[in-house]
């Protein structure tokens, strides 16, 4: 959000103030009206007006009194966690997941539909079905729909520019969903969404200002949060590290070039190297195959170990380049490759340590995300909340 | 700047408002009081109060009347370009440069002192001498001192953590200068400073929100501006790409490891590869030697061509990794290696194209900075202006 919008009308000023107050309540609540005024630099009258409106809308509630600083103990306010729900969708490579997510990232209901090879219009039909099911189950006012999906996404326009496995090109998904369901929609790359989810709902206690989330799954991609904001880049391609070439004249990549990071660090790459390229391990087989590889890995199979640890080192090299460029200390790994566990993570860490300036590397914390939550669903929902309510995800 | 400072007193609210108004005037002026109120979301009374103070301080001036929107034509205001001066210092590897810089980046006076091998306390003495000379020449009120210097810098603390060629370690330069001269001081890595200079004073017309400036000189480093703000990273190491390993078991680097980008892409590396490692081409000789290499390069000497273009490709690979991670479309190159001209730049561009996703690479604009201005001096001055006046460098 720019501090200097191009042209602010009176109504926009009011909306700006509402967002500022909500952001303050969301990040710091329970908090008093006086404290909100101090923190937002708004007058007490403005804060009281805005809060009255938020109480009417039942977005905010009073939750008792805080410590007195001399006079009467002030009434404390907070955002009601389940005042609104978001329909979060994860258009994954093997299944689509829909969920009802509240303002604190709690999932109230979740469903999963296997894609079973559908693409194009058939895949779009699946998206509609999933939204309809969520609408039936929603027992609270809905804020909108947040969609996380692989591929290159123009988040400002809500357009999927390129999603290779669903055969979608320049699909205006946000407009389609907005017209069909009459709800605001945000569409975001799933790796970007995951970073936002980890930032917004992941850490308890103090949030880091900056973090990098790296997905090593069927594909490889990253999401970057900097100063509390998701980094989109000039063309919404920030985080597309999976298609940076890391091996000169390497294996062919699905993007059409050779030697991309995905060809050496993804789950797909691990399977290719174990079974020989060209083997079909798409769709339903791949999880089973990855499970077998993991068993062999844990048994100490030398060939599997070599392939998996090499994948970890390649990922570490890419992370080292990001740390060198951005000096971000918190790195969170997620995706199916993380199930190879500590030895794989150690290979990532070791390569990061070897490849970055000691002064920078010593403070870097590389961990694996909690596998229990659907990060794409949560992150896409968080983005929708930000766009609709200004609920920030800044500290 | 966070929207939610930890605790704002009444005085801090006033300072916040002054900065908001100044930022608006600096970025958009000439502009009317009414327009400032609309853009900053402050009341007209607050804006008038703040502007009255700024007129008293002669930071702002009235510059005629704008078009009427019905009533009386409004008085337009702007920041006086030379209302204040900053002492900008560039503690380069071969010489220290001092300059008096005004609020629009115009250099009013500049001096250069050769280091001649001095380091430690002797080098610090040179810094003091340079500041004293600038103080003698300043004919306008001074805002403070901005220092750009190679090495790892803690900008928040004003501490040079590591500057290998000056033999400075954990030198609290900001405190030393503040105590000696009674002026506010900002210290920033020279590559970061250069990025800010290009962003703040470089482009005419519309500024890009994001840019990467890459220095290929004696060392290699980058600076990143994102959303109009300089990216510092968690430990002020953002942009330290020169010490990311790019060649497995490569040549030894001055940082103590092997195969860092600096060992293949810097001016130093080019000389090493032409003359054999260990040859002394430090201090005064190096410019002459680089000139000779450039002549041989332009004559078409095959060995020199091969070394220089290889240096360009390595730099292109590092830039590709940054574009993959951040999707920034504007890349500006500077430093002595850029004097190899278009063939070298073409080798950088070619590698960027080969290594990044087509969808991203097609929009990338890689250019060479105007060599006429001292970017470290201008950027360090810009940072000081931002810290003292809140003059932003956002659009």
Could you characterize the architecture of this molecule?
The structure is a homodimer of 395-residue chains. With 395 residues, chain A is an alpha/beta fold. Chain A is 42% helix and 22% strand. Chain A contains 13 helices and 16 strands. In chain A, strands 6-5-4-7-11 form a five-stranded mixed sheet, sandwiched between helices. Chain A has a five-stranded mixed sheet with strand order 14-13-12-15-16, with helices on one face. In chain A, helix 1 packs across helix 3. Chain A starts with 9 loop residues before the first helix and ends in a 6-residue tail after the last helix. Residues 1-7 of chain A have low confidence and may be disordered. Chains A and B meet through helix 1, helix 2, strand 13, helix 10 and helix 12 of A and helix 1, helix 2, strand 13, helix 10 and helix 12 of B.
Range of helix content of chain A:
40-55%
Q: Tell me, briefly, the overall form of chain A.
A: globular
Proportion of residues in extended strands of chain A: 15-25%
Radius of gyration of chain A: 23 Å
Number of helices of chain A: 13
- For the termini of chain A, the CA-CA separation is 15 Å
Sequence of strands across the biggest β-sheet of chain A: 6-5-4-7-11
Helix and strand pattern of chain A: HEHHEEEEEHEEEEHEHEEEHHHHEHHEH
| Helix-and-strand structural type of chain A | alpha/beta
Largest interface: A-B, 68 and 68 residues
Name the quaternary structure.
homodimer
For the sheet with most strands of chain A, the description reads: 5 strands, mixed
